[in-house]
Amino acid sequence: MFEKYVKLLKENSIKITPQRLEILKYLDENRTHPTADQIYTGLKEKNPSLSKTTVYNSVETLEEHGLIQSLTISGSESRYDFRNDMHHHFLCKKCGTIIDIDIKCPNIGKMLESGHKVEEVHGYFKGICKDCMKKETKQNGS
Amino acid sequence: MFEKYVKLLKENSIKITPQRLEILKYLDENRTHPTADQIYTGLKEKNPSLSKTTVYNSVETLEEHGLIQSLTISGSESRYDFRNDMHHHFLCKKCGTIIDIDIKCPNIGKMLESGHKVEEVHGYFKGICKDCMKKETKQNGS
DNA sequence: TTGTCTGCAAACGTTTTGCACGACC
DNA sequence: GGTCGTGCAAAACGTTTGCAGACAA
């Protein structure tokens, strides 16, 4: 059940706690880029003693060790992503869904010439997602 | 003094108020991507009656009409940018400076194929800026 | 055992809200 | 006179902090 996450934590020399395992598992199984509050609410029922502080502490630790990523695409609140490889995100302004985007930008290499040391790249696209576009078309008739 | 900003507001059919003119001018003259609080503090001395609420209201209006852009690159607080053309940003994790980045990503075109309607593109790069890199090299000796 | 992690409550910083007043067509 | 903008105070929201007790190694 949790072997995968135990392994992940061990490999990164992070102490294993039930909370960290639960949070990691939650993020792995919920690739919806949840907020800290969503993680908390999602786990609270089966782990009534869980506190929001622990959620914040855990995602911070996991992020520092590069196991997960945090996103600031939706303004007010941070979102967390189990995927830790470089990829980008699309936020639908209508339904709020955040979709992974896997395009590459060859010009990012140009950043090297600028003299700045780039450690992170976040591409945030915003607009109306495919599904919401379809719904709009239906409503407007054809 | 303010003709430029009066013109900008008129062109976008936004009502002209002294506060909006001051804020627009501040953003034009301070291309440091200031926060709402920095705008407020920067203008408060010469406009003692200015309120923070008005700063928030104004930047919201200006952004809605596409005159300015808001950034969520630095987590906790929104930052505002007079530039409204598509460009990207680099945040130095050491000194906090935000630098405009003018590279193009030709693959953004691929987003069209995805079926999502893209209205905004924000490229956030994070790392250590050129100046901080120099300082680090000096400290470590050669 | 030793240091780290958890969970509670309180504090914090940013942003939003409700509302009365004032400015402008 | 009615709409819209301002500014104050209070509230809301996400997040952080301080601390005591619990737990992992």
Question: How would you sum up the global shape of chain A?
Answer: globular
Determine the fraction of residues in helical runs of chain A and give it as a percent range: 40-55%
Order of strands, main sheet of chain A, comes to 4-3-5
Number of strands of chain A: 5
Mean pLDDT of chain A: 94
> What share of the residues of chain A does DSSP label as strand, in percent?
15-25%
State Rg of chain A. Answer: 18 Å
What are the segments of chain A in which pLDDT stays under 50 over at least 5 consecutive residues? none
Biggest interface pair, residues each? A-B, 35 and 35 residues
Give the assembly state of these chains: homodimer
End-to-end gap of chain A: 50 Å
Q: What's the helix count of chain A?
A: 6
Instruction: Please describe the biggest sheet of chain A, giving its number of strands, its sense, and whether it closes into a barrel.
Output: 3 strands, mixed
Please identify the structural class of chain A as seen in this structure: alpha+beta
Helix/strand order of chain A: HHHHEEEEHEH
Structure at a glance:
2 copies of one chain form a homodimer. Chain A has helices spanning 3-11, 18-29, 36-44, 52-64, 110-113, 130-139, and strands at residues 69-71, 79-81, 88-92, 98-101, 117-128. By secondary structure, chain A is of the alpha+beta class.
Could you explain the architecture of this structure?
With 142 residues, chain A is α+β, with helices and mostly antiparallel strands. Helices cover 40% and strands 19% of the residues of chain A. In chain A, the strands form two sheets. In chain A, strands 4-3-5 form a three-stranded mixed β-sheet. The longest helix of chain A is centred in the middle third of the chain and has 13 residues, at 52-64. The mean pLDDT of chain A is 94. The A-B interface holds A 72-73, 75, 78, 90, 92-93, 99, 101, 103-108, 110-111, 114-130, 133 and B 72-73, 75, 78, 90, 92-93, 99, 101, 103-108, 110-111, 114-130, 133. Strand 5 (117-128) of chain A pairs antiparallel with strand 5 (117-128) of chain B, so a sheet runs across the interface. The structure holds a DNA duplex (25 and 25 nucleotides).
